[in-house]
Specification:
The structure is a single chain. The chain is an alpha+beta fold and about 170 residues long. The chain has a single domain (about 35-170), classed as Alpha-D-Glucose-1,6-Bisphosphate, Chain A, domain 4. The protein has helices spanning about 1-25, 50-65, 130-165, 165-170; strands spanning about 40-45, 80, 85-90, 95-105, 110-120, 125-130. Strands 1, 2, 3, 4, 5 and 6 form a 6-stranded antiparallel beta sheet that branches. A hairpin with a 3-residue loop joins strand 5 and strand 6 (about 125-130). Helix 2 crosses helix 3 (about 130-165). The chain is elongated, with a radius of gyration of 22 Å.
């Protein structure tokens, strides 16, 4: 009985030690399941009644970025999610293998863009990234997607105005 207890204690200590090694590698403690997101979602504000346009432009932007868009979900198909993509990305002082998923929630007057990233930890499998380098890279990716969607929305608005008023088409470069 005592031998079994000692083995359990030794196994628990070894597991804790391995978890600490990963945390020390990046200089922080592993996230708890209820940790806040590493980066706040990027927001796009637009006028009422443009949700369908935003969804269309978001799909185009994601496909232009080389991502496969899964069938829409949520109330009336208002959530876009991409298939996971594995690639090398900044991770601390080096690069590591990451898995990314982009989620775009489209509401009545606002859309939220989130890039969720997990790094491959050989000890614990896939873990959410928590280092500042990764946070900066995620923020930049979210901003790029938001800018692309907004640029395409501006272009579609100008095109619609040109169809209604030919003088706008002459003034548009």
């Amino acid at each position: 009985m005592l031998l079994v207890s000692l083995r359990l204690v030794a196994a628990a200590a070894a597991t804790a030690c391995l978890a600490c090694a990963s945390a020390h590698r990046f200089g922080h403690a592993p996230p708890s399941p209820r940790s806040p997101p590493l980066v706040a979602p990027e927001r796009i504000d637009y006028g009422p009644g443009r949700s369908e346009q935003v969804l269309e432009r978001a799909v185009e932007a994601l496909q232009a970025d080389g991502r496969k868009v899964l069938p829409p979900s949520g109330p009336s198909g208002s959530r876009l999610v991409t298939a996971p993509v594995e690639r090398d990305a900044p991770c601390g002082v080096t690069n590591c293998l990451v898995r990314e998923v982009v989620k775009i929630d489209v509401g009545y007057r606002r859309a939220k863009i989130r890039v969720e990233r997990q790094a491959f930890e050989s000890i614990r499998d896939w873990e959410p990234t928590r280092d500042p380098t990764s946070a900066a890279d995620i923020k930049q990716k979210q901003q790029e997607l938001a800018a692309t969607i907004q640029r395409e929305l501006q272009g579609s608005r100008t095109g619609a105005q040109a169809r209604k008023n030919p003088s706008v088409a002459a003034a548009t470069p």
